[in-house]
């Protein structure tokens, strides 16, 4: 979703994320209306980023909050899953983690924490030599209670 050359990620809802080309971030939302999506993107993603999305109407206001918004329409469902393989893979892996690891004990109160943990595991492969520092920051900044 991004075109920035830097990668930063915080677990706080108050500071924007510069995703770079290699990162994943998920946000639990109360609904998928355009106004809600716009509000989340405004608070969590830097304006310099770009988005490539499918034709869902809820993404219609992204152009006003991001530098660029490209829409790809593919009516064939079989082909459309291949348009966003990285996003589809991330979502499928998150579903598997929630059902596999947290089966029968998923609490909606902690849903954002579950997603943050999944994204941290996915993104940590890009931390390189900063892995220890990032682990300490994650432990200090994000609590489950």
Assign an overall shape: globular
Strand order of the largest sheet: 1-2
Q: How many E strands?
A: 2
**What order do the helices and strands follow?**
HEEHHHH
* pLDDT averaged residue by residue: 76
Tell me the fraction of residues in β-strands, as a range.
5-15%
Number of helices: 5
CA-based gyration radius: 16 Å
- Low-confidence parts, pLDDT < 50 over ≥5 residues? 1-21
For the record, give the distance between the C-alpha atoms at the N and C termini, rounded to a whole number: 30 Å
Helix content: 40-55%
Biggest sheet architecture: 2 strands, parallel
Total domains = 1
From the helix content, strand content and strand pairing, which structural class follows?
mainly alpha
For this structure, the quaternary state is single chain
């Amino acid at each position: 979703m991004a075109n920035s050359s830097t990668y930063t990620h915080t677990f706080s809802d108050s500071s924007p994320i510069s995703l770079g080309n290699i990162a994943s971030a998920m946000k639990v939302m109360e609904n998928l209306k355009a106004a809600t999506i716009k509000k989340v993107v405004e608070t969590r993603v830097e304006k310099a980023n770009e988005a490539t999305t499918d034709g869902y109407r809820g993404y219609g206001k992204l152009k006003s909050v991001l530098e660029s918004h490209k829409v790809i329409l593919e009516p064939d469902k079989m082909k459309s899953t291949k348009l966003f393989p990285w996003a589809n893979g991330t979502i499928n892996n998150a579903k598997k983690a929630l059902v596999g690891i947290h089966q029968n004990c998923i609490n909606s109160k902690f849903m954002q924490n579950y997603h943050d943990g999944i994204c941290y595991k996915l993104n940590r492969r890009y931390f390189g030599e900063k892995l220890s520092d990032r682990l300490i920051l994650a432990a200090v900044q994000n609590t489950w209670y």
